[in-house]
# Entry
Amino acid sequence: MAPLEPWEKVLVDSELYPDTVHGQIPCVDCHDGDSTTSDKKVAHEDLIANPSNDAERTCGECHPDVVAMNEYNLHTNLAGYHKVLDARSVPEDHETLQTMFGNHCNDCHSSCGECHVSQPNLVGGGLIDGHLFNETPSMTRNCTACHGSRVGNEFLGKHEDLMADVHFRQGRMNCIDCHTGHEMHGQPSQCEACHNGPEASSVPPADHRYSGVQTPRCETCHVNVALGKDGIEMHEAHSGDLSCQVCHSIEYTSCDGCHVAISDSTGNPFYATDGSYLNFVIGKNPLKSYDRPYDYVTLRHVPVAHDSFAYYGDDLLKNFDALPTWVYTTPHNIQRVTPQTESCEACHENADLFLTADKVAPEELAANLPVIVERLPLAEELITDLTSEVPPATDDGALSDSATGEGSEVQTDN
Amino acid sequence: MKQAKNQFGNLLLIVVLLLTLLALASFLAACGSEESPGDSGEAIAEAVLEPTAAPATPTDESTSTTETVAEVVDPAGPDACMDCHSDKDMLIDTADPVEEVVSENEGEG
# Structure
């Protein structure tokens, strides 16, 4: 995405914009400033460049239902960041971490306008379409402008030798085809507000983007898979215990060791990561629930480290081990055919694919115990998976785990 | 006697004829003189002098340039914003110098 020239960022389409609904509203109603003079300095005095930062005053005048959801909107409240920082730290350090957050993390906040009118400030801002309000954000100038280094690069196929997501490559789908406005604008914390079925009473309100009802959900479109009527044995065998990505993703991005600081020379905040790389890792599902019953999911490494925030103080993440550093992920590079789908043996007993203890940094071992695969699926188990027949006896004469209903795993060498 | 009677008759006929012609002439003259008030000379003159269409006088034209400038500089209403922000050249001319910020970030974020 090429950067915009300064004039491009503020050029209003004088032919189209005045005839739109928003074009009927005097500029100063949202932006303040002084519209009665063309003296630039006077006109811009007390100007509000991004009015939707105060959405209740501006957007909320006509869209109160949407703005009311802001407190649940991850783009607005950045709840995910707060949640993991709080979990890994102790209350005494929260104030210090809040300072860090304001310097380094808060830029990821996105207002209404940064999706519907302009590019996000994180990438320099600027009007996208002459101040026209776009109901559907631009995939490349809004969504992947922020979600670019992982999601954008994977979905659009920008990694060498890795194909773009089939939904983009063949389906020509963009982000909003799956991630609807309902999801983007936030959802009520009370499931019962929308769902009155068993799912509402059997699980607590969603407190993580991967808890609660799946939105989006692959089976919404791939209905035959959900119903087990597509005639694919793998789906019949694994539809309940593997997330879709386990079989249909290819390599995706993980990162290590992010550290933040304030520059001595410029006074600007900056970050540095030790590295990012492509890998494909299957691990145990750390967020097993009614809506995500899978035993195995894909995992990626997040770049948090014990000393990520050492610039602000020593040992600010005293509860570092409270959460895994290998986290549930849903890569955006779905393929119908992947190395995992080539054969049963491609996964069964293939240690390369699974997060085993030997692949975890020693200082992160405790944090990742919930997701580390201690035993690999046996090759013999694929027979029972596909035929549901009584499995053969194991070497020691006992029935395999799948026949007894116990965990169908064996200890790895590591 | 009979000749004198004929001369009197001819004379009477001539008189009647003349009176008829005179009456006809008077009638025609009366018709030709009927005019609408608006078509009177006075009304036409008033129409010419009255500045109904407010045609610009040379004096007015000489001051209009100043008024036009004043409108651009200090107009009333919301259009001052659009005047500038829809004019690419003006935006280029009036843009503040861009301070290039070199990112000190390392690695993917």
